[in-house]
Structure formats: C-alpha cells, structure tokens
Amino acid sequence: MAGYEGGPRDPMNFEEAEEYVRRNGKVLPIPPLLGPDHIHCIDSRRTKEGIGYPGGLLGLTTTLFSGVHEDAHAHVGGFKGFAQFLEGLFGGMSAHTDDEHEHDPSGCRGCGHMQSLMTNHSAYGFGSEHAEEVHSYAKGLKTRWREGTPGFNIFQYGGKANPRAVMHVDDPRDGHYISLPPNDGTNQVFVHNRGANHGILGDAVHFILGGLGDVFKSHPKDIYDKHIALTIDKLASDLPHFTVGHDGGKITVN
How far apart are CA 57 and CA 25, in angstroms? Predict the structure, then answer.
C-alpha cells in the first residue's frame, strides 16, 4: 500500500485517534527473536507492521552504548565493537533511510532520530567522537545490505513525513505487543512501542552483562526515555499525544 504523501494536515483529534487505532491496531505475539526484520523506526512514513523503536536496531544500539561507562569504552571495543557484539544477539542489524537520501553512503541518513542524536551530542549525552563511529558503522551497514548479507537491513521509507499525532503504546505484559503501523495510506502518526522497547532493552542488558560484564553507568531504559523525549520534542513538538493500551482484550486510547 502506498503511504500517505499529501500536504500538512491539522493535528489529529481524539475521535480520529480512536478510529485510527481501531482500524489499524493489532495485538500480536512478540517474535522469539527480535531481529532486523521485526524492529523498525518510529518514523511516520513506515507502512509495515512491527515494533517501533527510534532509529531501529541501530538506534537501540546507540541507546545501549549511551549507558556504558566511559571507562569501559575500550573494553567493549568502542561503538563499532559494541555494535558487532550486539549483532550476535540480534542476528544482524537494521537502520532506515528514505528515498531522498537513497544514494547517500550512510544507512541512516534519512532517519530523524539518528540525525538528531549525532548532531545534538550534549543533549543526548552521546560524544561527538562516537557520532563519527556511528556514521562509519552505518556506512558499513549499508554496504553489507547492498551486498545481500543475511540479517543486515536498510528500510527505506518513501514520501513526505506528515504526522498528525504521537502514539505512545503501552504494550501488554504477556509476551504480546500492539502493532500499529504509523502510515495506513490515509494518515500518518509517530508510533513508539515503549512497553515492548523497555522489555527489549532489559533482555539486551542481560545479554551484555553475561558477555561483557557490568559495563553500565546508567540503565538504558532511563536513557531511552530521555532520548525518545528529545526526538519527539524536535520532530513533533506541536502534535497531540495519545496513549494506546490494552484492557480486557480490547485496545484502548487515552
């Protein structure tokens, strides 16, 4: 289905938000392996089902790395070594760009979250030296994707971003999540599955502790909350916010 590509529209009201969720929301089991095919970005141009994490798996990796103590950076191999370690957990890596930056060598040039993180270092707490490492890694990621390396994906979103709302999804705690595509061909919204994302971060921390030891200065869940707030403030400061939940077998909107 082609995504909505019209001009700017008014912010979504509550009734429209309810209708959007009713029409598009599904409760799905969280896949046993949360790999490059399942974790997408919160970008409002995405039409596919999946878990919305800012920046996709590459964004997830930067969240986790932001929690690593400075004294442990050499131990984990810098950002590149850390990302390569996490490739073993994820079964690869993913990021996204857009059709405007299709020919850019970076695999995340069209991602508003990643560009915000790499240019606003002090706010995100992500050093400029690591931003260059991310840029280099993203170029290598795109090369592997172009070569057809299994497990390495670059999602390309097309058209203009015209979000009308921000949807904060509180996922069920029974191994399921609420799938809500940000673009249904008629409307666009920002979607981030914060409940599922907190669970994914917890699992990733457990994996890292087992493989690299206790390298964290801050829990990545707290960093995630800070990063998502900064990105939404930058990309959607004038949009209404809705919370999507699950109660008694029904998807709810507040």
Answer: 22
pLDDT digits (tens, 9 = 90+) for 134-150: 999 999 999 999 999 99
CB atoms within 10 A of CB 241: 13
**In this structure, is residue 107 part of a structural domain?**
yes
Q: In the structure, what pLDDT confidence band is assigned to residue 6 with cuts at 50, 70 and 90? A: low
Residue 125 CB-density burial (10 A; 0-12 exposed, 13-18 middle, 19+ buried): middle
Q: Is 8 part of a structural domain of the chain?
A: no
Q: For residue 149, is it within any domain?
A: yes
pLDDT tens digit string along 14-44?
999 999 999 999 998 887 667 788 788 889 9
| pLDDT at residue 245, as a whole number | 94
User: Residue 170: which of 79, 252, 91 has the closest Cα?
Assistant: 252
What is the model's pTM? Answer: 0.90
88 domain residue, yes or no: yes
Going by C-alpha positions, the residue among 153, 162, 202 that lies closest to residue 50 is: 153
- 38, 115, 197 from 34: Cα distances, Å: 6, 24, 11
CA distances from 174 to 53, 89, 244, 251 (A): 19, 22, 16, 14
Look at the chain and report how many structural domains it folds into.
1
* Contact of 164 with 238, CB cutoff 8 Å: no
Cα-Cα end-to-end distance for the chain: 28
Q: How far is CA 20 from CA 71, 157, 187, 248, in A?
A: 47, 20, 8, 20
What does the chain come to in residues? Answer: 254
Q: Which domain holds residue 36?
A: 14-253
